[in-house]
Specification:
Layout (H helix, E strand, L loop, with lengths): L1 E2 L2 H16 L9 E9 L1 H12 L8 E10 L1 H12 L5 E7 L7 H4 L18 H4 L2 H15 L4 H28 L4 H16 L7 H11 L5
Parallel strand pairs: 1-4, 2-3, 3-4
Helix pairs in contact: 2-3, 6-7, 6-9, 7-8
């Protein structure tokens, strides 16, 4: 499993294939990169079909699955594949945030080993924004969520998850640094609950973000 930027994640997965499996990083028939925006159960079936095919040029096959958002039904469909992949197949799932994944699927995954110094994590812009800027960001997000295009709606929900993850990381850091408070811990509990809710297609974005704008500490 890899989380974060798609291009960097694919590069890291290709490098793992070279270092561990001996597969070249350049174009190769046994290194497959499947990229999706949204990942419904139909794509899960497509992935299973691709993985079921034996390697073409050797004994190992690397399948990199990159998606912005993977629906719960698709995750459930992939459980058996990730629990018992074919002996020749190494699967790498790339998503923006680990919080997108159901615990049942996450328990079947391992984080891809990284070499070198860990990359510094850049806070989400919403975390750094003033209260007024946050209100504008939320208004734009809610407008996108009302789009007639399903792709645009789901993209807005993926962005909502990124905001929630960014807030969770920022407020968890306070606990690690010993500067947290009872209010901070209550907020972390709410953010965890919202993460679960936002995985649903009909998650109430307006209610969630109106509530957050009220309870988040004021920033000038």
């Amino acid at each position: 499993m890899v989380t974060g930027d798609r291009a960097a994640g694919i590069s890291a997965a290709r490098a793992y294939g070279t270092q561990v499996l001996g597969l070249p990083e350049e174009s190769h028939p046994d290194v497959l990169v499947l990229e999706y925006h949204l990942f419904p159960v139909e794509h899960a079936r497509e992935v299973m079909e691709v993985v079921s095919m034996a390697p073409v040029a050797g004994s190992d096959k690397l399948v990199i699955i990159a998606t912005e958002r993977i629906f719960h039904e698709a995750q459930n469909a992939l459980l058996k594949l990730f629990e018992e992949p074919p002996p020749y197949a190494t699967l790498v799932l790339l998503v923006p945030q680990e919080g997108q994944l159901l615990p049942t699927l996450r328990s079947r995954l391992q984080s891809l080993p990284r070499h070198g110094a860990p990359e510094a994590r850049t806070p989400h812009p919403f975390v750094l924004a003033s209260t007024g800027e946050r209100e504008k960001m939320v208004a734009k997000l809610l407008d996108r969520a009302k789009s007639a295009k399903d792709d645009e709606k789901q993209s807005a929900r993926a962005d909502a998850l990124r905001i929630i993850e960014g807030l969770t990381i920022a407020h968890y850091e306070k606990e690690k640094e010993g500067t947290g408070s009872e209010e901070n811990r209550m907020l972390l509990s709410e953010l965890s609950r919202f993460t679960s809710i936002l995985h649903e297609r009909s998650a109430p974005l307006k209610l969630i973000f109106e509530h957050l704008l009220l309870v988040l500490p004021t920033k000038r």
